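Checklist before submission:
- one chain only
- standard amino acids only
- sequence pasted in full

Submission:
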Amino acid sequence: MSRVASIPLQRSMSAAIQQSQQKLATTQAQLATAKKAPDYASLGTEAVRNLSTHSLLARQEAYVAAANRVGITMQFTDTHIGSIDTSAMSLKKDILTAVGTGKGTGLNDAINAAFNQFRAALNASEGGASLFGGSQSDGAPFTPNTLADTLATPASAAFVNDDVKASVRLADGVDVEYGVTASDVGTGLYAAFQTLAGISPVGDPPTAAQLSVLSQAAGQIDAGLTSLRAVNAENGRKQAQTETLGVRAEDRATLMKNIISGNEDADLGQVAIDLAQQKTVLQASYSVFAQLSGLSLVSYLR
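Returned file contents:
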């Protein structure tokens, strides 16, 4: 004979309510964290892919950071080489004017100003390290302090940098050498300053011998500017390469972030809909449970 009882039905309803509560709690957690799951284990088969993608993302972000840092260094290099170029061009103009007019007014000041700009640019630093020193980050890579010092200092002693060029990895298997040394930049122009130091101070008007030497110095400045611009052009080429690799790394990082987001991030719009539905279901379960709990066989046996 079948037994009439309300307890089994109440147990079934209680289990259904607990399940609804658990789903609602999970949905609330997704809304609070904006994540599909609280840990990688809960992602199931996507966990391995996401862990690998996180590793790839970290690598690409490191490439982006390195490209930005090196790009700034190359900009500083371009700026200082440009200042040498400008001052050397101005000095050449003043020399040719003196040769053409036979007057040396202000030429000594122009020579000294150009030398001081040359020296300051070669001894420039970035972040406390010498910009043109190669691996010699401490000390000045260009030693003469005055124009007169160049007479007793050959180029081999004037430039104390080494030939170690800095390099950085900006993509898998791609290293970019970006360092520029003081000797690369200034050796050609240094010969012109040595020539000018030999006739300093230039008279007003210059002597015939001084005019001849000034013409020689103008030619040396031309030769020095040619090598200087070749170095700067190479720096510009590598700067463009660095920017390109940085953009590619940034694009890859964005792709990795999208993959991770697709596997980990919750759809907050769908979460809000689920939350409303589960709340309604839970409220209905409470109502039905309350009604069933109020039923009693005794009420129908009276």
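Reviewer check: The chain is about 70% helix and 5% strand.
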